[in-house]
Amino acid sequence: MNTTENKSSRAGRYVQQPAGYRAFIPAPLPPVPPVNLGGLLRELLSGADYALGRLDGAVLTLPNPDLFVSMYVRKEAVLSSQIEGTQSSLQNLLAAEARLADPDTPADVTEVINYVRAMNHGLKRLAELPVSVRLIREIHAELLRGVRGANLTPGELRTSQNWIGPGGCTLADATFIPPPPQEVPQALAELEQFLHAENPPPALVWVGLAHAQFETIHPFLDGNGRVGRLLITFLLTEKKLLARPVLYLSHYFKRHRAEYYERLQGVRDAGDWEGWLAFFLRGVAEVSREATRTAAAILRMREDYRARIIERLGRAAANGHRIMDKLFDRPIVTVARVREWLKITPAGSNNLVSRLVDIGLLREITGYARNRRFRFDPYLKLFEESGERRP
């Protein structure tokens, strides 16, 4: 076999199926010949490791890192689901979590809620179960419970052929056809073996290889993209690259969606693992830097509003601080909810909310005279892209 042929079949090979189409059968990881970690990839790996380490340290400086983490999990859920075509925003998700009825909420918000639940379920299970086929199937079941795709055997490996391509395409004109169903259990078993092998490659390279391999196997009839992106978080956590899951790579994948798919296809068609890993490592570094800046901005914002509360609320400052601390977890709120939090009168809670609106901590978002709803505006703006913000 010449060098060109060797490289093109490095990730696997296309095999003609009895029905006439060509499906891709992935080769086991690690790639042969091995990934070239010299030159550019060495630089990118060093930069990504450094950026990830800075992020890990920045999160630990926050007064309550777990609240920051919960918002990052939600943000990742929104972005990863949007890649698959959902319309729900971060504000839609938060309102749904707070059980606040909103006629404008897209029906697919349940899919985003499921993503949050799947993420939290997986992170909890990591304490007792390593990343494995068993865990992946559990996550898939959580992800598809009660939503579109729920009829497509949640938690079960597919027993029929699937394919990837534009909406409405068939096997005949698909962009990519993953391995036939009878090959899926073996391919996943080999992936699991790679995840637990001795002497693995550098951790971020290991995560990048695993994500691409999972997406190539495409073991379920629906939800493969979301499960594959969840897998990145679980692997980063299992390897202790992050003490807390605050890296949402879906932000990067969504921003560079066309290149994301091209790089994955480049692995399959040309064995270009180096091209995919360069893209992946750039994403880790870019998103880590963004998240580090967000952590610093949260600290500045919190101190700014604590000072405003002391200056403007006088004797009510203690209650103002209590509300702000609660808002980091539940950033969309009603006057009734504030009354529950503080155990004060309706008039007192109304007055307090109005004063928090005056200093810019809260913003009313319904425009109604009754049943009003408020958002912790300066905090949510740190997590939202401009297109997501409502007037």
Automatic annotation (TrEMBL):
The keyword ATP-binding applies. InterPro entries: Fic/DOC_N, Fido, Fido-like_dom_sf, Fido_containing, SoFic-like. Keywords: ATP-binding, Nucleotide-binding. The active site is at residue 218. ATP binds at residues 84, 218, 222-229, 260-261. The keyword tRNA processing does not apply. Residues 43-123 form the Fic/DOC N-terminal domain. Residues 131-236 form the Fido domain. GO terms for molecular function: ATP binding. This is Fic family protein.
